[in-house]
Amino acid sequence: MSVIQVPEADAGQWRCATCDEELALRPVELEYLDSLFNVALPACPKCGMVLIPENLALGKMNQVEHLLEDK
Amino acid sequence: MDQSELRRLESRCVQEEAPRCTASCPLHVDVKGFCALMAQRRFDKAWSVLAKTLPLPGVLVRLCDGPCKGACVRKDAGGAVEIDALERACAALAKSVRPPKPLPSRHKSVAVVGGTLTGLCAAWEMARRGFDVTLYCEQAGSCLSAVPESTLPGGVLANEMEALRAMGADMKENVSLTPELLDSLLEEKDAVFIDSDDLPEDVRSFGQPDEITLGTERAGLFASRTGEPSAVFQAATGRRAANSIERFTQGVSMVSGRELEGPYETRLFTSLDKVEPLPPTPSDGVYAEVEARDEAKRCLQCECMECVKTCEYLRHYKYYPKVYARQIYNNESIVMGTRQANTMINSCMLCGLCETVCPEDFSMGDVCLEARRSMVERGKMPPSAHDFALRDMAFANGERCALARHAPGTDASEYVFFPGCQLTASDPDGVETAYGDLRERLGNVGLMLHCCGAPADWSGRVGLFEEAMAELKSVWESLGSPKIIAACPTCIKTLRVGLPDAEIVSHWSVLRALGVPVQATDGGGTLAISDPCAARHDRVLREDVRALLEQANVSLVEPELTGEYTECCGFGGLLSEANPELGRKVAERRAGAREEDFVTYCAMCRDMIARTGKRALHLYDLLYPKGDSPAARPSPGYSARRENRVRLRETLLRGLWQEDAGPNGDPFEAIEVAFSDQAAANMEDRRILKSDVQKVLLHVGRGGQRFVHGETGHFLSAFRPVVVTYWVEFEERDGGYYVHNTWSHRMHIKGERS
Ligand code: SF4
Ligand code: SF4
Ligand code: SF4
Ligand SMILES: [Zn+2]
């Protein structure tokens, strides 16, 4: 399965406070209504915590949620 | 919805029926389309509309006496549109067009015998449909030679004869019409049509033709009846003959489904309500360009659209119920692929206005509710559509909010007060005062804090609604089944259906009987009343409220849509949850219906209108006043609504019943948090509750991971209590938290792929 790149997934100036690490794009698995997606998202290389920025949550991600719901 | 149900619905909506002019024109000219083009001075286009329908158009428009005008709806608003005069003007103003291109040959030969207008039109209609037509007559159109030049200018007839030939009709003139000719034609041809007005007596041996088919005793021989004076009816006979011959040569039924040939009654309803009377444009003979345009503008462009004119939701989706019914049917039939109509189905307010204004009682609300139920049943309801509202309903019925007690110090209730979950959320103080007033003046009044179950009903969850009703019923019975005093019109409506054994009176009729409470403010100047849509069919309720307002010295004005015709505030049917943007638009429309401050008797109506910035009062604001300027009281946000319910229950339990309010809630509630204005606004828009934010912050406090911003130093953390993940951007301040922003999503982060 290929990993989708989303331009909205910009870490901005966020860094992991827990591990004191810069975030880097990592392949992440997302799930909604029995559908799985592999998306490259900013995450902490150490603890793995994934960042979903506001514009991604309200933009692309929201669109995909609606598409899946309307199926 | 199955096919037959769809058909039944579709046939109910008359929007696609023909306008009255078209239905009464024997040839069914698209007068509406024609007038629209004439009004734009697009004369060539307008002419092509006529030429598409009329045989020998140049001749016919000059001879037609316009029987359509008798049916024109404009007749009762100044006078019928001068359709025939407009058509003649068009003939003079438009460039001449080439004759229509006939359909490919059917390889069927027909003879037309006789060349008055009837025969010529029959030949025209059949040539056009691809028959091989031969016309036999003395002299084509000779009967028109008596028509004065001023009516039928020279050359027009010749032109149309030319056109008829160009369409492939073979014209045999100077033929004497004899019984022998007829016999041989019947031998030779697939069918024969006789224009009886052009026939010597000795040939007419076939008796009177059938009225519908024009068929005679001889198979394959069709004939007109004699003596039709009207040109357009003669032409219609020619067309009827062509239709019959087409059926005859195809071997299909000669009689079925012919009701719409010739003039018929249409079901299209067109309201004259807002139409200013306007007399016909005067002319001296033939309309010139500008006059023709002005006269065409008088055409009302008849259509129904009564429901679409009054319902913002129906208007929003750009069509009308006939089309929507089909979309909903298609949506339901989809097995794979994307459903386009989900949001449409979930955006109806179920308010019943459409049904009230529709001449055929089409209820879009019923169609949408049925569709929702079926979506829920088949597991096709999008989880995000009503999730928030249903969680809110569960909360209102949960142990922190729900309550059922006899009045303090009593162990029986003659009445029980049922304020409803939205009124308690919006105005807990008003509810408390109202309850005190009822106890004081009525005696044994118990209290029930509970949701009536409307959200479950509106969202199409039949099972959930039944559960909620069963629970309500047992609570009510546990109080000894007292008479219910309900304050919310939706509760009244819902409970009357759900608790048929209960006697339900409105708080307003109780107050009307008791008189306004002592603390009521005197007057409110002039206020505009907004009836909630739940009161649409409850005349008594509406009258009680008006009487009460009169007792309170309010002078009332009514918006245009009021009483039985009131429009919904945008909350009904959970519109504002399923489609917040449209919900706001609907609320704004309602808010704009009057200049004056509004007064209403539904807490949701009050808050929806107030949220648009319009000043609005709930009746409680007048009867149980508190504080200044209640019309400017902001609508409490979602979090405050929940807290209001919780606090009301606690206050009442402690104050009235001297009881402990029970467990002190969850640990996250102890988290101290404040919000920036932006964060607070985003929370309302995004349906994020203070408690959701507190859960994230509790998670952080317990060592949850967090990000930090390089520039602002703000922290960012996320938590997923159930199915929604909440993100909170915050600072730590004075032992608590200050939140700058928050957002959410439903997609679940499963984590990094290994
Ligand atoms: S003027 Fe005659 S042809 Fe034209 S629409 Fe009216 S009835 Fe039909
Ligand atoms: S919102 Fe009301 S008026 Fe509009 S379609 Fe639905 S039930 Fe009918
Ligand atoms: S009111 Fe609406 S539903 Fe009723 S006939 Fe007219 S367009 Fe159709
Ligand atoms: Zn980390």
Specify Rg of chain B, calculated over alpha carbons.
36 Å
Strand-residue proportion of chain B: 5-15%
Largest interface: A-B, 39 and 34 residues
Note the gap between the termini of chain A: 21 Å
Helix content of chain B: 40-55%
What is the number of helical segments of chain B per DSSP (H or I, 4+ residues)? 32
InterPro entries (chain A): DUF7479, DVU_1557-like
Domain DUF7479 (chain A): 13-71
Keywords (chain A): DNA-binding
Protein name (chain A): DNA-binding protein
Describe this structure in words.
With 71 residues, chain A is an alpha+beta fold. Chain A is 21% helix and 35% strand. Chain A contains two helices and five strands, in the order βββββαα. Chain A has helices at residues 54-58, 60-69; strands spanning 4-5, 14-16, 21-22, 24-32, 35-43. A three-stranded mixed β-sheet of chain A has the order 1-5-4, with no helix packed on it. In chain A, a hairpin with a 4-residue loop joins strand 2 and strand 3 (21-22). The longest helix of chain A has 10 residues, at 60-69. The radius of gyration of chain A is 13 Å and the shape is elongated. The two termini of chain A are 21 Å apart. The model of chain A has no long low-confidence stretch (mean pLDDT 90). With 754 residues, chain B is α/β, with parallel strands linked by helices. In chain B, 43% of the residues lie in helices and 12% in strands. Chain B is built from 32 helices and 20 strands. A five-stranded parallel β-sheet of chain B has the order 3-2-1-4-5, with helices on both faces. Chain B has a five-stranded mixed β-sheet with strand order 6-8-7-9-10, with helices on both faces. In chain B, strand 16 (707-709) and strand 17 form a beta hairpin. In chain B, helix 3 (31-39) runs antiparallel to helix 4 (43-53), helix 6 runs antiparallel to helix 11 and helix 24 packs across helix 25 (539-551). The radius of gyration of chain B is 36 Å and the shape is elongated. The interface between A and B is large, with 39 and 34 residues. Strand 2 (14-16) of chain A pairs antiparallel with strand 16 of chain B, so a sheet runs across the interface. The complex binds iron/sulfur cluster (3 copies) and zinc ion. One iron/sulfur cluster binds next to helix 13, helix 16 and helix 17 of chain B.
